[in-house]
Amino acid sequence: MFSLLYYDIKATAKKIFLITLILLLFSVAVKLLWTKEFMENFDNSNFYIGNVIRFTAAGLLGAFTALAFLLLVLIQGRWFADNILSNQGQLTNMLPVSPFEIVLSKTLTAFIWSLLSVLTTAFIVAFFLYDTSMLDELLIALDDFKQASGIELTTPSVLISFFIYISIVVTSIVTLCFFSLTFGHCFSSFRNMAVFLSFVGIMLLQIIAIRFLGVRTLTSILGTKDMQIIAEFLLNTVKKLTIINVSLVCFYWLITSILLRNHRNLI
Fold it and tell me: What is the per-residue pLDDT across 192-216, written as a single tens digit (0 to 9) for each?
């Protein structure tokens, strides 16, 4: 099992590290644009040009960060297809492990990469806000929120919970991708169409199911000024969504493994 996990991590590490490196270098470049030294190159007549450059660069950094998460999903989906559903899958099928272990290894790999990507994003945000008034204002706002809500919260616990939650959400998307790829390969024709329709269709069903399970949206507390109500709403929502996404990860792992076991010709 650990050999499988190591192999999956090693197979996807190069591309993910490359994307991470580009993202970090891009964040450094954007940070330089937000320094006082950069703005000293502009005077009152063209000061707005410096601001346009800075905000455009910051927007591009945000867009590239979102793209990096999309590439994270695509890279792992591509590796799943190449390693299991292509000709290489014949070799994978010869390993003395079950389909459940094979898919579990890739699921754990997805969580590991998702967590590292979330931590990288958090580092970029902290690096970008470092030595700025925005970081101080953010920490003050968080302290005010904790005091006004009356709920005992610590900054580390909030951050850890948020990081784990986002990582699980990304992992659930990756495992849905695994299932859609496997489901599509059950058909002899129109496989790509089946993959696309199953992925989009299930995503829509998930959104409907989340509302059905009683997860309220932010609109349900609009106009509320009671910070304790808002804090409880946010905490309960995160808890519910975490449980739902963990359940989805387990479900996709199980159903994908069953499909691979019952359709050995897929591998």
Answer: 888 888 888 888 888 777 776 655 5
Neighbouring residues of 136: CB distance < 8 A, sequence distance ≥ 6: none
Alpha helices in the chain (DSSP H): 2-33, 36-39, 47-80, 89-93, 99-129, 133-149, 155-184, 191-212, 227-262
Q: Taking residues 91-105, what's their average pLDDT? A: 77
Instruction: Please write down the long-range contacts of 198-202, taking CB distance under 8 Å and 24 or more positions apart.
Output: 202/176
Amino acid, single-letter form, for residue 22? I
Q: Which of 110, 63, 103 is nearest to 83 (CA)?
A: 103
- Contact (CB, 8 A) for 122 and 163: yes
Indicate whether this model's pTM tops 0.90.
Answer: no
User: What is the Cβ-side half-sphere exposure of residue 219, based on CA atoms within 13 angstroms?
Assistant: 1
Q: What 8-state DSSP symbol labels residue 44?
A: T
